[in-house]
Amino acid sequence: MKRKSLVTLRFVLTFFAAGLLLASCGNGATAENTPKDTTAKDIMAPEHRFTADVVDNKKDPACGMPVTAGITDTAQYKSKVLGFCSKECKTEFEKNPEQYIAAAQIK
Is 58 buried (19+), middle (13-18) or exposed (0-12) by CB count in 10 A? Predict the structure, then answer.
């Protein structure tokens, strides 16, 4: 009977110790060293796709903002790639491109 109690106690202590070990190690992950979850959304975010050197305009045709400030969308117009600061500016340009093209300051 004493032997059975010791075996049971040893099993419980071993199981408890293993649980503590697994819980405390946490695979070494902490908030500081956990890599950022890079999803397709992050990789394809507009700020990662377009830079001023890939477009043919110096300013957003619709609002006049310099493309060096940031490009979130592009459109092709008469074999030129135009950068826009927002989807709204691109939509406005597409309504009447001839009205806005002079403001684009094509390179």
Answer: middle
pTM over 0.70: no
- From residue 88, give the alpha-carbon distance in Å to each of 63, 72, 93: 10, 10, 9
∠ CA 82-78-63, nearest 5°, is: 35
Residue 84 CA to residue 101 CA, distance in Å, equals: 12
Q: Using a CB cutoff of 8 Å and minimum separation of 24, what contacts does 12-18 make?
A: none
pLDDT digit string, tens, across residues 56-81: 999 999 999 999 999 999 999 999 99
Reading phi first (left if > 0) and then psi (alpha if -120 to 50, else beta), residue 70 is in left
Q: Provide the residue type at 105 as one letter.
A: Q
Task: Give the bridge partners for 57, in sequence order.
Answer: 106
